[in-house]
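Example record for the data management plan.
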Amino acid sequence: MEFGLHLPNAGPFANGPDILRTAKAAEDLGFHSVWLFDHLFTPTNLESKYPYSPDGEYPMLPDFPFYDPLSVMATLAGATERIKFGTRVLIATYRHPVVLAKELATTDALAGGRMILGVGAGWMAEEFDAVDVPMDQRFARLDEHIALMREAWQQGTVAHEGRFYSHCEAGFGPQPPQPGNTIPVIVGGHGDAALRRAARWGDGWAVSAAGDKLAADPEGAVRERMDTLSRFCDEEGRSIDDLLLVGQAFLGQPAESLKGQADLGIDVIDLMTFAPADQVIEEATKFMNEVAPALA
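Corresponding structural encoding:
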């Protein structure tokens, strides 16, 4: 199992210099990756329910800064040398796939092929309304969105004519430098529809479960979802072992808890803490010196 560190791109302590300082510290400490959340804004009157808390309450407030993950990843491409970076997860359909395909490929090329793209269908209706994307189409749009971007990355010169998106035959260079000229795509979400997408076309899954079930029995909730994903993979003629499974945990959790995730087959743990950068780096240093060796 590898360990990632979540960067402070959102919340009361988020600021540009500390995002970069934390990323550089993570690279120096030997973390596998750094991770970012995605949202466009935080409504002052949020009616949508957050699916990953027991009561549906969203932890972000309107006056908290929320740095755009695409801009941050582009900066990380030049500010770091070795560490992988990714989103957990990007709401891809907020952005047009022709534009997003170009932006992501450019950043990955500049970084030498270090990006992992986590994508989700989204849950906040207020954001869909703001960008004029029908929320009830989000799942079908996501399927075509990722297909278009992969065509652009892998084929270089391609045309697309689909239900939601189309473009003339055109060259999309630069292509991502990773194997197959693509960027690994991990699927976010905990429902059966998300797991079916991970099994059908995902390179991985951003491990999660419903907020109320996580609160009651975290390990059991994740195990049930993984069993379901494994069954869907079998139906698609794939193996869950071929997927990159990216879980999450709080940075201060004991080694025993993290070992439970390793035993479930999770490949990478995105370690999170909402604190000032000095404290995050201090806790990350302690983790890599004391906890990570116990899990090797």
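Summary line stored alongside the record: Residues 44 and 62 are 6 Å apart (CA to CA).
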